Amino acid sequence: MRALQWMLVLRELLIGCGNNRRKKMSIGELEWDELVTIDHDPNCGADILHDLDQTPWPLDADQFDACHAYQVLEHLGAQGDVHAFFATFGEIWRVLKPGGLLYATVPSWKSVWCWGDPSHKRVINSGSVMFLNQFEYHRQVGHTSMSDFRHIWQGDFEIEHADDDGDDFTFILQAMKPARSFMDHIPPEPPVEGAEHKPK
Question: N or C end: fewer C-beta atoms under 10 angstroms in the chain?
C-alpha cells in the first residue's frame, strides 16, 4: 500500500502563485507532481490568468488533489463581505476532489502586517474557518454566538490543522464531498447551569 501511495501522481493548484513556485506545505513530499498555477498578474507566467475575486474560476470541478494558497486569501474579498468570503472558499471546495486538501497561510491577526499592509482586505483566523465546517453549525448555532450562514454556504471543510504563531495563521482543510448534512439530527439543548432537575 505504501509503495502504491508513492506511485500516485498528485494534481495540485497553486492559487495566487505570483513569481514563487515553492511548495511550502505538504503531508508528503515538498515537490510538485502535476502543478497548475493561477494568478491575476500577467507578468508572473501563471498557467491560468484570472482575477480570483471573479467567480466561478475557469476550472472544472473535482480535479485537484490539493490546493495551495500562501499569503493570498487575505487579498481577496473584503472584511464583512460574507458572500465574497464563501465565494472564494466555495471555488476551492468545488475544484478539489472529494477528500482533497487546502494548504493555506495568511497573516496572523496579531501580526503588524495583518492590517499594516494596505493591500490586505480581510482577516482570516481560526474562527473564520469554523464557518466552513457544517458540523460546527450543527454543534454551535443556537448555543453560541456563531452566526448561521448555511443558506449561503453549501460546501463543507473539515479542519485538519490550524495554528497561529503570531506571525502567520497556517491551516489545512479537507474537502468533505458530498457536504455533510445534520438537519435530521438536532443537537440536544445544553444544560442550564444552576437549573434544578425536576423529576417527571
Answer: C
CA distances, 132 to each of 50, 108, 160, 179 (Å) = 24, 19, 12, 10
For residue 114, the enclosing domain spans 52-175
Express each pLDDT in 112-154 by its tens digit.
Answer: 999 999 999 999 999 999 999 999 999 999 999 999 999 999 9
Which residue reads 480581510 in cell numbers? 122
Q: How far apart are CA 127 and CA 172, in angstroms?
A: 14
Any idea what the CATH number is for the domain that residue 97 is in?
Answer: 3.40.50.150
- 133 lies in some domain: yes
**CA torsion through residues 18, 20, 21, 26, sign:** negative
Instruction: Please indicate, yes or no, whether the overall pTM of this predicted structure exceeds 0.85.
Output: yes
If phi > 0 it is left, if psi is from -120 to 50 it is alpha, else beta; for residue 166 that is: left
185 falls within a domain: no
Distance, in Å, from the CA atom of 25 to the CA atom of 172, rounded to the nearest integer, reads 9
Mean pLDDT in residue range 144-167: 97
Rounded Cα distance, 35 and 62, in Å: 15
Domains identified in the chain, total number:
1
- Residues 94-109 pLDDT 10s: 999 999 999 999 999 9
Asked, for residue 192, whether it belongs to a domain, the answer is: no
